[in-house]
Design brief:
Length: about 350
């Protein structure tokens, strides 16, 4: 009889939880993007099925008075490329949500052990979100959020597949191999953290001291574009710096000074072109009858157009280069490059 009551509650809850799932995933993606963090995988989420709930209740021998007492009816998994981004995101969660509980699973392990590592949060939405119509009636539900790096995710996936989640479950002849694999994945996170720290130092040094004769690399290129073009045009994570360097080198632009000179010479014209393109595309988007070929854009692209922005930093630089060397020469190079 108790299970029937819980099942009826589940049928009522599932629709609300599915709505919360979509809304919360969108909010978490926005939090990641606003902080400039890098996901290793798209955010995953699920509403626990009734069969999964029943299996859990039977396996653990529990009978909750209300189904909503369970903390994992709605689960979200966020996988970051870098440990540093994971730490920054956890700080944002602490600031933006009500935290019912949190755990770093690595604290369960001794220095000589291997095992599953992840940050586990149980959160509520802030009560103030109740005033937002789309979140009305949803702030009372707990959400389980798992946060891990891509290396930790790989370990979790492998250990789940092999059922080697605990040291005691691993056959003795295989333990040395498992220890090595676990240590290598942990080393990946540590080395990426060190790489990012070294990169930050390099970027700072190049920003403060790089000479005009400094040979272009992706860091120097980004610094120059940041200096010359408006911040609004930059599209973090989607700037093709490496490919642009190939274009610049082909047309004998090899140094910081040469690039800066070119961009400053063409800056006003390319920014005017950018505003005109953004205006045209926004009008076309709002009035599809202007052209038989409708423009399909994402919300991010639409927002950029509304701000009068179309080209990215790399797009602006490539436009400046085309104006400098001539549209025909640039087009010939673009066609030849595709065949390389």
């Amino acid at each position: 009889m108790q299970n029937e009551t819980l099942h009826m509650e589940y049928l009522e809850l599932s629709a609300k939880l599915s709505r919360l799932q979509g809304l919360l995933t969108a909010q978490l993606n926005q939090l990641v993007e606003a902080a400039g963090l890098t996901l290793g995988l798209p955010i995953e989420s699920r509403v626990k099925t009734w069969s999964s709930i029943g299996e859990k209740l039977e396996r653990k021998g529990i009978q909750p008075e209300k189904l909503s007492d369970l903390s994992d009816l709605l689960g979200v998994r966020i996988t970051f490329l870098f440990q540093r981004d994971l730490d920054a995101f956890c700080a944002s969660l602490d600031d933006k949500f009500l935290i019912a509980s949190k755990e770093d699973t690595s604290h369960r392990l001794s220095d000589a052990q291997f095992g599953y590592q992840s940050q586990h949060y149980i959160v509520y939405l802030p009560p103030t979100w109740e005033a937002v119509p789309t979140f009305e009636g949803l702030t009372q539900y707990k959400v389980e959020i798992q946060i891990r790096t891509l290396a930790q995710h790989i370990w979790a996936a492998v250990s789940h597949k092999l059922q080697y989640k605990q040291e005691d479950s691993v056959p003795l002849p295989l333990r040395r191999s498992i220890y090595r694999a676990s240590a290598l994945l942990e080393t990946v996170d540590l080395e990426f953290t060190r790489l990012l720290t070294e990169r930050d130092s390099y970027v700072k040094g190049q920003t403060e001291r790089a000479s005009k004769q400094a040979k272009l690399d992706v860091t120097i290129l980004e610094i120059v574009l940041n200096e010359v073009f408006p911040k609004a045009n930059k599209q973090d994570g989607n700037e093709g710096y490496s490919e642009l360097i190939t274009d610049l080198n082909h047309f004998n632009i090899h140094t910081r000074g040469e690039l800066t000179s070119l961009l400053e010479k063409r800056r006003q014209k390319v920014l005017e072109s950018d505003k005109q393109e953004a205006s045209y595309r926004l009008k076309k988007l709002l009035n599809p009858s202007m052209d038989s070929n409708d423009i399909q854009v994402s919300e991010t692209q639409k927002y950029r157009l509304e701000q009068g922005v179309f080209y990215t930093h790399v797009g602006l630089a490539r436009t400046a280069l085309a104006k400098e060397v001539g549209e025909e020469a640039f087009l010939e190079w673009a066609i030849a490059k595709r065949s390389l």
